[in-house]
Amino acid sequence: MKLFKSALMLMCIFALQQLQAQEDLRLSDLEIVDSTSSKYQPFDFNLKVKTMHLWKGLRVTDAPVVDVDLNYTSRNGKFKAGLWGGAGVTGYYTEFDYYASYTTNGFSLAVWDINNSSDYPDAKIFDYDRSTTSHFIDVTLGYQFKPIPLKLSWSTIVQGRDTYVTSSGKLRNAFSNYVEASYGLIQKKDWSVSAFVGGAFSFENEAHFYGEHPNVTNLGLIYAKEVMVLKKFTLPFTATAMWNPEQEYGAIEVAVTLF
C-alpha cells in the first residue's frame, strides 16, 4: 500500500511537471508571436548626403547637402508623415518641410509644406501670407502601373510663394503644375537604371514656379547601385543626370543614404 501511494505521488508530480512544461511552451509560443509583431517600428529617421540638391528640374543648390527625414509610418505601410530638413555645407541653403502621404492600390497622394528659407532670411516659420512667406504647399497625385515599371504623377502648388502679378497689380497664386512620367529601364540584383521626363505650366499665367514658359523642365536618367563598404555592408548610391530645356542647364547629383 505504501508502495502504491508513493507511485501515485510520483505520477502526480510527473503530471504536474508535464502540465507546467506545456504551459511554458504555450507561453513561449505567445512570446514568439509578440516578438514578431514588435518588429513594427512606427518611427524612424534617415540621413542622406548629396553633392547638390535637384528637385523637379530645379537646381535648388549647387553646394553639397546633408538631409534628414524624420518620419512615422502606419502598421500597414500605407500612411506616412514626417519632417524633412536639408542644409548646405556652405551655410547658404536651409530647408525645413512637413509632409504626409497615403498609398493604396498603386495610387498615391502626397502633401508637402516646403519651406526653403534660403532667400528669405527674415521669413517667419508660421507666416503663410503669399506676399511674405517662404513656404509653398505642393500636392501630388501619382499612379504606379503594374507589372510595367511606369509611374505617372501630377503636382500642383496650391498655396504660398508661387505667385504672379495681374494686369491690375494684384498678387495672385499661379497654381503651377508639374507633370512627370518615370520608367524603369533595367532592374538587376544590385543596380538599376530608370528614366524620367517632366514638364511644367500654369493655367493662370504664362510664367510659373519652374520657369517663364510652359515647357519640359526635367529630363534625365537615374543610376542606382549597392556599393560594398569595408567588405562588411552595402550603401545605396544614386547618380542622377538631369537636363532642363526651359532653364537651359544640366547637372549631375550623386547621393548616398547612410542609414
Report what the structure shows.
14% of the residues lie in helices and 54% in strands. It is mainly beta. It has a twelve-stranded antiparallel beta barrel with strand order 1-4-5-6-7-8-9-12-13-14-15-16. Strands 2-3 form a two-stranded antiparallel sheet. It has a two-stranded antiparallel ribbon with strand order 10-11. Strand 12 and strand 13 (191-201) form a beta hairpin. It is globular. Residues 1-37 have low confidence and may be disordered.
Count the beta strands.
16
Please write the string of helix (H) and strand (E) elements.
HEEEEEEEEEEEEEEEE
Largest sheet: number of strands, sense, barrel closure: 12 strands, antiparallel, barrel
Rounded Rg:
28 Å
Index terms:
single chain; 259 residues; mainly beta; twelve-stranded antiparallel barrel; two-stranded antiparallel ribbon; 16 strands; 54% strand; globular
Q: SSE layout and pairings?
A:
Blueprint: H1 2-37, E1 43-50, E2 53-55, E3 58-61, E4 65-73, E5 79-88, E6 94-104, E7 107-115, E8 135-144, E9 150-160, E10 163-165, E11 171-173, E12 177-187, E13 191-201, E14 215-229, E15 233-244, E16 249-257
Antiparallel strand pairs: 1-4, 1-16, 2-3, 4-5, 5-6, 6-7, 7-8, 8-9, 9-12, 10-11, 12-13, 13-14, 14-15, 15-16
Could you give a short description of this structure?
The radius of gyration is 28 Å and the shape is globular. It is 14% helix and 54% strand. The chain has one helix at 2-37, and strands spanning 43-50, 53-55, 58-61, 65-73, 79-88, 94-104, 107-115, 135-144, 150-160, 163-165, 171-173, 177-187, 191-201, 215-229, 233-244, 249-257.
